[in-house]
Amino acid sequence: MSLLLVLHSDNERLEAYQQAVTQTTSEVYSTLSNLFSEINKAQHSICSDAELKLMRQYLWTHSELTDIARLQDKQIICSASWGKLASPIPLPVPTKSWQKSGFYHWRNTKDALQGTLDVNMIANNKILMLVAPNAYSSISPEELGTGFIISTNDGYIPNAFGPIDPEDIIKNSQSSFNRLVHQKCGTTGSGVCITVYNSKPGLLGKDHTFLLVICLISLVLSVLIYITLISLNNHRNSMRKALKRALRRKEIYVVFQPKVQLKTGRVVGMEALARWHHHKFGQVPPDVFVNFAEENGLMPTLTRVVIEKAIGLAGDLLRQSSHLSLNLNLSMADLSDPMLLNFIDFQRQNHEFNAEQLIFEITETSASGFEQIEQSVDRFVSRGYRISLDDFGTGYANLSWLSKIKASEIKVDRSFTHMIGSPHSTHSNTLDAIFTLLDDLKVSTVFEGIETQQQADYVLNHCRDALGQGWHYAKPMSIEQLQQFISQGYVSLDNIRPASSVTIRPMV
To answer: Superkingdom, according to UniProt (predicted)?
Structure first.
């Protein structure tokens, strides 16, 4: 009886899951159909500013898309994200083509522009749509063995998710004691079939020996998990207490990494980076203790300690050298902190340097609460501080952010810098596209992660006014080493060395 109840519950959940998949599929198909029609109906000149603006408006308002591109002779010549391309990007061979309708489809392939994300792409002879890999993420199933399949009338499967080969599910679409399958066709308005399944319904199909073994294993695992959780909890409690104590005693320290103007080799600024060394845990990586601070409500205190220490150490240097800037990282929660801005004003005024010498780096991690973030950024800008958009190029909404947030600086993510020198043509096309985009944006650009002279030369050849930051010039250093680095041009330490062909000129 209990197994039948479990099976009935599984059936109800599977029906609800099918409804969710059907609704999402209908929305995606409707969006794609409308956008193909609207872009063609607009009749703008190909890749003109008007057409790019229209495509960007559509892209920013449809989270299920990663990009919209214009095609010519089966090659990408421009897109909403990358603008006009320096050279066309040829499309790969489609997974499926429909000659009568003139449409092509690519299933689970590397996106044709950046080559880093697995996406689905659909195109006619004029327009290419890139469907985001997370288009169905909002309806992720609760059961591990559950999946869905979207298939067309001719048997093609444009999208599928789940642990079983979709062909196997389609061929054996009847439910059994060890597999639940529901299928509905023609429910999305696009002539497709939605098939959902649960390959592990309840405990059906499991013999007594298996269940006994599972029970014994579960018992052993429960004991091990209990011991592990107790140990982890003790560790976390210990680290939480240690971090609270370190923040109370202001034991978090700050190092600085210079920003260099590539065409002159001159130091124009530095980024403050938080560090923590504990006698028990050793040198704790920044991402570890920053994440820990966020999880335990310690971020406001950590941010204030870092800002106070960074300005306290670099304040004299900034006052004496008005051309230098100091970059400080802020979280989304920091921007919404109503008291933080007054705290920053107080610290800066104590050291008597200009507000525009402080640059606050923010990273786009989600679109939630965007209006509040926009208002918070406006408050910073209104008091003379500058905003830098960090890790540019890694999120779906960076262009949307740039259109609304008053960023005076962009920091290009190191993943793009590391593409330099790659033999892959996709990487070369990606770099050409991002340099074209940056040229159109007309804001100060910093390339992170420069580690070789080849990378520095490549960036300089494509972006004459670019700034660079990375180990090729200097690792993070103390304020004393930074002052010596700036005044003497270099520091005679193995771990702090400027580029071999660039002379770092004194700025003080």
So the answer is: Bacteria
Per the structure block, which two tokens stand in for 283?
């040198």
Q: Are residues 328 and 477 in the same domain?
A: yes
Tens of pLDDT, residue by residue over 14-68, are 888 888 888 888 888 888 899 999 988 888 899 999 999 999 999 888 888 889 9
DSSP H or E run through 57: helix 49-60
pTM of the model: 0.54
On whether both 235 and 88 belong to a single domain, the answer is: no
Question: Which of helix, strand or coil describes residue 207?
Answer: coil
Q: Note whether residue 439 is domain-resident.
A: no
Do 159 and 50 lie in one domain? The reply is: yes
Q: Identify whether the C-beta of residue 502 lies closer than 8 Å to the C-beta of residue 301.
A: no
- Length of the chain (residues): 508
The sheet with strand 159-161 has its strands ordered as 159-161, 146-151, 193-198, 180-185
Q: Are strands 118-123 and 103-110 parallel, antiparallel or unpaired?
A: antiparallel
Contact 309, 252 (CB under 8 A): yes
Q: Are strands 266-278 and 193-198 parallel, antiparallel or unpaired?
A: unpaired
- CB 31, CB 62: distance < 8 Å: yes
Task: Give the best-scoring range by mean pLDDT among 183-197, 225-239, 434-448.
Answer: 434-448
* Interatomic CA distance for residues 2 and 239, integer angstroms: 45
DSSP H helices in 94-180: 166-171
**What are the backbone dihedrals phi and psi of residue 82, each rounded to the nearest 5 degrees, phi first?**
-105, -5
pLDDT digits (tens, 9 = 90+) for 154-179: 888 888 888 888 888 877 777 766 67
**100 and 43 within one domain:** yes
If we measure between CA atoms, which residue out of 266, 264, 275 comes closest to residue 477? Answer: 275
Q: Are residues 173 and 45 in the same domain?
A: yes
398 within domain boundaries = no
Give backbone dihedrals phi and psi of 461, rounded to 5 degrees, phi first: -65, -30
Distance of alpha carbon 355 from alpha carbon 345, whole angstroms: 8
Query: Strand 266-278 relative to strand 118-123: parallel, antiparallel, unpaired?
Result: unpaired
> Which residues are CB-neighbours of 226 under 8 A, at least 6 positions away?
none
Query: Could you tell me if 147 and 41 lie in one domain?
Result: yes
Alpha-carbon dihedral 239, 243, 246, 248, rounded to 10 degrees:
-130
